[in-house]
Amino acid sequence: MIGIKDKTTKELLQHAIQSLDPNKNNSRLVSITKEITDTNPLQFFEAAKDTGKNRVFWASTEDEFFLVGAGSAVEITAEDNRFELMEKQWDRMLKEAVIHNPYKVPGTGVLALGGMAFDPVKKRTGLWESFRPGHFTIPEYILTKQQGKCYLTINVYVQEGDHPVQLSRQVQEMGGTLLAGSKRPTQDFYVTAREEIGPEEWKEAVRRATEEIQQGKAEKIVLARELRLKFDRKADIGKIMKRLMDTQSNSYIFSFEKGDDCFVGATPERLVRLEENRLLSTCLAGTAPRGRTSEEDERFGRELLNDEKNRQEHDFVVSMIRNALAYRCTDISIPEEPVLYPLKNLQHLYTPVVARLKEGYSIFDIIEQLHPTPALGGTPRKKSLDFIRKHEYLDRGWYGAPIGWLDSNNNGEFAVAIRSSLIRGKEASLFAGCGVVADSDPKEEYQETNIKFLPMLTVLGE
Ligand SMILES: C=C(O[C@@H]1C=C(C(=O)O)C=C[C@H]1O)C(=O)O
Ligand SMILES: [Mg+2]
């Protein structure tokens, strides 16, 4: 990794191209970050559509933190053994990279955004054909907005024979186009059909899961189902992101676009945040609706906090995360009791986790260790995954899996991709699941998934 101070784009590119070793790997990433004037992330996202580039959007609404990426400078992908292979590709790429980033702000500089399949073992269907079991993109252009300040990062993969003057003009022009925003009006679209996939079969699977749990074969199994929508025209992703931003607070709002397919959502569930060695994780499980009045809302909240079944769902997550972090972290701090985590359509039990990551471990190690937590898989992990593979009538794809970003300064954040939908042109698949424990009632769990569909359903026009 080479760091250079105060150079122009042209000079940096020139330097990088000249430094290529023709006898070795004759290409490398050049990454240049500049602070820019205030820029609207959604406008940048829209402008990127006009350029025909694939886009990625990430917002942590709580911190007013935004990342918007356009295009792709480097792709990191893996099928099997994905954590190790992706980390190797990331490290190798960074070693060769020329990075000009004087700011060191989390989420600037060389940054990979992406995600992975929930279960690389389960047989895939055509639904998720555009999404690999592990896939990160280092976008060509990244807008970072953090604490009111905006940064533009340009990532270029330079090769021998590249012309620095031309290349510099080209990337600066494109940067300007993206920062100028889009004049194109967003497009309305309407739901024309709605289909729940196998609701009766799903309830039956829940019943079976409770049986297995009562027989002591597992303690918790999370089962998910799908709801399909059809639209009168292609769904406008920019419009969906805007609506999610307007309606879903306390969430991570995301979109990963691959051609006509796009995975979008607003998830409240942090898996891990790393700032150098300071680690945060979250236990989020146990659900109640929001009340119509503040009295009703408080009553639902109180009942949730005291409900044995929901507390059980939650506690499995807390103990698993505690154990998973034990070897890799010090100073682990977890409160004894959960608190409420209110969202627009529902409320959850929430326990925050704070720790320090030990030297020698990376965010990849932590994700590998944590995924899937009992919030999305179950307890014990292997037993619950076996049950899901056998009885869940759904290709989860990236639903329920870690999605997020990491940068070259050991910062990163990953969330669990729930409250989400895969948009495929004029169609959408929505996903929602429930933690099934010994005394789960299939009808009630079914109702719980109905509420969990709401954040996406409402922004898709239902
Ligand atoms: C599986 C989902 O959510 C998970 C299940 C919960 C529950 O059953 O109480 C609550 C939050 C998440 O851990 C989902 O939203 O699809
Ligand atoms: Mg539940």
TrEMBL record:
Mg(2+) binds at residues 313, 448. InterPro entries: ADC_synthase, Anth_synth_I-like, Chorismate_C, IsoChor_synthase, MenF. The keyword Isomerase applies. Pfam families: Chorismate_bind. SUPFAM superfamilies: ADC synthase. It comes from the Bacteria. The active site is at 220 (proton acceptor), 269 (proton donor). Keywords: Isomerase, Magnesium, Menaquinone biosynthesis, Metal-binding. Its cofactor is Mg(2+). It catalyses: chorismate = isochorismate. Gene3D superfamilies: Anthranilate synthase. Pathway: Quinol/quinone metabolism; 1,4-dihydroxy-2-naphthoate biosynthesis; 1,4-dihydroxy-2-naphthoate from chorismate: step 1/7; Quinol/quinone metabolism; menaquinone biosynthesis. Its EC number is 5.4.4.2. Residues 200-452 form the Chorismate-utilising enzyme C-terminal domain. Belongs to the isochorismate synthase family. Catalyzes the conversion of chorismate to isochorismate. NCBIfam families: isochor_syn (TIGR00543). This is Isochorismate synthase MenF. It comes from Virgibacillus sediminis. The gene is menF.
